[in-house]
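task queued by scheduler; priority normal; single chain, no ligands, no partner chains; default sampling; output format set to structure tokens
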Amino acid sequence: MAGNGQRATLRTVAERLGISVSTVSRALSGQGGRYRIRPETVGAVRAAAADLQFRPDPVARGLRMRRTHSLGLVVPDAANPFFAEIAASVADAARLRGHAVLLCDSRETTEREAEAVRLLMDRKVDGLIVCPVGLRADHLEACRAGGLPVVVADRIVGSPPLPFVAADNAAGGRMAAAYLVKRGHRRIGLLQGLPGSTPNEERKTAFLAELARHGIPRRLVPVAGEEFSEAAGAGAASALLDRHPGLTALFALSNVVAMGALRVLAARGISVPRDLSILGFDDHPYAALLATPLTVIAQPVEDLGRRAAETLFDRIEGRAPSRARAAVRLPVRLVERASVAAQPPDATKGTRP
């Protein structure tokens, strides 16, 4: 710290040693050898900087380098454990690169998402990671056109698609259908999320196609739901239970949708899995701790956030990623717990949902 109580600067260190500011800057940034600064001078600069408690000013450095060392992150629901884990993973990856993360919550609306993107651009972030609502992408296309590096995670948007990292949703849909059929279920309801978004459509399409492959046509699989939220999951579960009392299983396309369905089942006194089985897409921090632990198709959420950050840093630092690197699909896996019961072989013959 400078003697007058003010923060020490490069000039403070330079004046103490009687050398130039540029020499101090080069010595402290590890460029002494490049500029042929004598090792003893580099040592003296570092000792003086430590004695004066000199710390680099990141704002000033950012202005010189035209970098703010900050990333923008936009998620549709920061309270959802899935997106909270993505945010934590992105923050960890950013910290290792000396970057801070500015987080915005779009509340699952495209308007708020576009507003958040504009706000982050005004803050001069070095790049953006967006978990988009997924119904419109003009505001993100504008970032791409303007040269701001953008990577999307979870939901895929843009034409051609913006660089993305997402789970293998189709594989998860097929996996869920095959597992329910293996357990003897043929009267199955689907609790979807946001219609038109890529996770919803990829999971739903693959799930229905796999059921059809096992002799359960699309017309016999009731579908309900309007968004990825607990409230929507509760409403969709209520609708299916009212209209199709013969269902033996539900497949929920996200963790919060599954939580909403479980709330309805508990309120109606429906026992899981004795009366009705349920399978969810996305794990949940408490899924294994429920009265009936929830069977799920789990995504590698931590990897999703980390890979999105790595892809973004490639673009910020001018390393043009290959087409494969700019379109990353991560594997999913079935986590079998206790929420899906086996159906007797003859329990579903000759019936409709």
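post-processing summary
- The chain has three domains: 10-56, 68-167+301-330, 169-299.
- The two ends are 75 Å apart (CA to CA).
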